[in-house]
Amino acid sequence: xxxxxxxxxxxxxxxxxxxxxxxxxxxxxxxxxxxxxxxxxxxxxxxxxxxxxxxxxxxxxxxxxxxxxxxxxxxxxxxxxxxxxxxxxxxxxxxxxxxxxxxxxxxxxxxxxxxxxxxxxxxxxxxxxxxxxxxxxxxxxxxxxxxxxxxxxxxxxxxxxxxxxxxxxxxxxxx
Amino acid sequence: xxxxxxxxxxxxxxxxxxxxxxxxxxxxxxxxxxxxxxxxxxxxxxxxxxxxxxxxxxxxxxxxxxxxxxxxxxxxxxxxxxxxxxxxxxxxxxxxxxxxxxxxxxxxxxxxxxxxxxxxxxxxxxxxxxxxxxxxxxxxxxxxxx
Lengths: 175, 146
Description:
The structure holds two protein chains of two kinds. Helices cover about 75% and strands about 0% of the residues of chain A. By secondary structure, chain A is mainly alpha-helical. Chain B is flat, with a radius of gyration of 47 Å. The model of chain B has no long low-confidence stretch (mean pLDDT about 70).
């Protein structure tokens, strides 16, 4: 696994392709799952991942290396997801909860895991992002603050509130 | 159900799946894509010393013109106001009136310049009784003094 410093050295010497190939290998899966947990359906997640990687590729020469590559990539992916959730018209006809129930979704979790995903879908989009990033990805609040542009305190409060809501929903569904 | 439901490690497992070899294909695709697609090279505009001086000079000129206009219009307004006051006093003083006398014409602290008394609605019966002066013809409002 290459560090950010190595990637930076490759970029500064003009070896963008080499650096980017390494970035896709190192971070591609994490980015995909970050997107997938928000949009549920694989095809949508794939489209958004492609958009994210394209933007990262075109933006790489202008990246200042003041933040970590990981937070920069996550920020691009997060913006793609939020734009999709806000603007995609098909979500009105086929909401995320229904997508979760459809057979087309590649999902092999048990009833409890499905109930958890349904409970998470009850949260507003940004709060869902915070919950997923903390609960599943275990991203530090400081990194999350850079990715989402929100203070650490606000993120902690948001996560705590989200966790309470998710637990209550889970109890209601499973009991 | 316990309060710490979310702490169950089973729930933290990822329940979603992907098509077979999806991630390998994504990595290979992007290795090919990045070999072909050009990166956007950042532009580094160079500012010459000459152009910097030109910019500074034009800014100074604009600032100077604006400042001069401001000073000119401000002075004229004050001057014209003062000229008007002097002309009025000079005309009146030519008539032999002292400055004190002239100033008194502009005193507004006089009863007649105070706010008028509020109007009151008079009762018609009271008004007629008041007007019912001995010898008073209420219709013509004339008093017969004889």
